[in-house]
Amino acid sequence: MKFTRGDSSRQDDAGSSPAGKSQLPDRLMLWVDQVGGYLICLKEEVSLGAVTGGAAEVDIPVMANLSRQHATIHRRGETYLVSAQGPTFLEGRPVEYEAYLSSNSQLKLAGVEFRFRQPTVLSATAVLDPLTSHRIAEGAEGIVLMEGLCLLGPATDHHIVCRHWTDPIILFRRGDQLLCKSPGPLFVDEELVQEEAIIQHGNIIAGTESRFRVEYC
What we know:
- This is FHA domain-containing protein.
- The chain is an all-beta fold.
- It is 0% helix and 44% strand.
- It is built from no helices and 22 strands.
- The model is unreliable at 1-6 and 10-19 (pLDDT under 50).
């Protein structure tokens, strides 16, 4: 079951910790109230391609006329590059094999367009903002390529901009765990967080004016 925009409170049929979903996956969704859904990709290499009707064969499946494996984005240290398996353009120029991505560059896969950005020097984490109306299979309104940490909050240099929030929330990895913390009051499933907390599938994270739900893909 998916959540609609602005609804982080609904629970799936299996509860907040279903069997087989305790281990951190390669992808997860954040359903952020009054903002929307964001697909978080944790791998150093993510593939983009068409939805084929069955299980997703790529990390970022798009409902569009793309190849099954259309392009791949690689993270190498603090830089990113894209390799093309189908028609791919970067800033209007065709990518013959691979090309480095710079912040605020425009990436086009056939008729599907994204803006690639790295909003802060605090992390190599990058964001893909869809520029066309093609639907991402998970219903995501944005894609975060997470390296180390992901910032959610009101500032323009946050990865997920939540303009109505007062305090930011920081997601970060420690080994095989995903954790959260905030300079303001923070709750995980209505329990007050002391400094930081591990978050898992089904958790609802809330602050003074913030709220989102975690869903493993």
